[in-house]
Amino acid sequence: MNAQLQQWKSQGQFFEYLGYKVFYRDDGSAEKPCVICIHGFPTSSWDWHHIWPELSKHYRLIALDQLGFGFSDKPKQGEYSVMVQADIVEALLQSLGVVEYHVIAHDFGTLVAQELLDRGNHPEQATGKAPYLLSLFAMSGSIFPELSNPRLIQKLLISRVGFLISLMFNQKKFDRSMLRVFSQTSKSQLTEPGIRQLLNSYWQLLLLQNGNKQLHQLNFFLKDRQMHGERWARAWQETDVPIRYVVGEADPMYGHDVFQRLKDLSNTQDLHSISDVGHFPHIESPQQVLKLFNAFIS
């Protein structure tokens, strides 16, 4: 594991959820507004390293590796679902004494956030006193089932041959798959050594506890979206929680065309696109993301 990842891990800790160890970082004073960052597939809390130093100056910043990702446990027979990931988020916040919080979410992390929105819309269904969600800053997610645009590799991973795809997966295939979701501009700005180091770090995190052999289980959110997508869409449409949505124009999954359709569907019209950016705005254009987030919160 490279020095950058080792440093990230050394600045975090673990909490236990139903016998599983979940990694998280918690930086900043409890007196500051709390922001929790929820990553997407197939990455981890390390995703936020570009915007972390600046945000932690102003907020109590919390990020976790969702179950099955990063430094957290990756049980072979674990119960992987968006609902379980939302349970873990709430359990972590409660264990840290957080009463109210903001969310930054990316990729399938937006589905976890929509699950949290739905729970906030129906507090009478809650089994305990959950922390209160103040706002949602969402990036690069489908939001509505009809906007779902999974890539071929993701479709294969949830098919009957998914376990075989996981077994045959290697770093070369992983790098090629990840590079397809970055914009050409981002790849040139990151430079060849920079993008290689980034991809190698993602691969190292995936290798922990043989996570690369469990990719077919970690695409659980695609099936969850088929079952719960309409409910999550209603939560997005009906919530009183302020929402801002951001997408990269060059994102092959949720870029220009899908973004235009989202404008027609969404009651929330605080929608922004960043030109020459792909699926990872917080990696490809961190300063733009910081600008949009700070303006949204203030």
UniProtKB/TrEMBL annotation:
Transmembrane helix keyword on record: no
GO MF, any single term: monoacylglycerol lipase activity
GO biological process annotation, one example: acylglycerol catabolic process
Keywords per UniProt: Hydrolase
Keyword Hydrolase: yes
InterPro entries cross-referenced by the UniProt entry: AB_hydrolase_1, AB_hydrolase_fold, AB_hydrolase_sf, Epox_hydrolase-like
A Pfam family that the UniProt record links to this protein: Abhydrolase_1
Chain ranges of the AB hydrolase-1 domain: 33-286
Record-given protein name: Hydrolase
Organism: Litoribrevibacter albus
